[in-house]
Amino acid sequence: MNKIVPAKSIPLYSPTQQSQSVQQNQTFNTFGEPLNQLVDGDLPWGWVTANRAFIDKIQNEYSYFLTQWNTCNDRAPIERLAILKSLLRYISDVQKLCASKDECYQLWCNEYLLNAKQLNELQSECKYLSENINTLQTDYQNKEKQLMTLDDDLYAFLLKHPGIIQKDIYNHFPYDIKGVIADTLYAWDKTGKIKRTKSGNSYIIYTR
Question: Are the beta carbons of 36 and 26 closer than 8 angstroms?
């Protein structure tokens, strides 16, 4: 277990240095290294243990915002943008908080908590959503309308095209609902609403 030793307990420092450290509320690890200064460009030994409560709080909050973003792919673009902005706002607040403390907190935030590549991707996605929100929202609303009548439209299409190859069906519907159509046909085959017969890398489909 990492042991945090108050400044006055470190014999490696003179009484004058100890007095100054106590006034600054510094703490040191068992090697006599101050826990508010980097050692060879990295966190000093014992820093994580000394700041466990802070780390856990920030990590839990960050995980909450990140999970909200990672699980909102099916939401409306305007909702996704709001969620992403909340995540980026939280990240900015944490960066400012850590920068206001000392260089150790700042390094932990930028190199241990956050991922530079991921942060750039989030910022780029936010920029894309912001610049195209009207078009994206309109496309989303149109897709939702199509999905509301998809079952009826798809079955009516199958009735008019008995024996059609499944992969050819996709050409008659919007590309972005291809996955939904595939899932629907699979479910209908299992319930007996249609019959699918394997044909090469696709299926021949008949209604029942």
Answer: yes
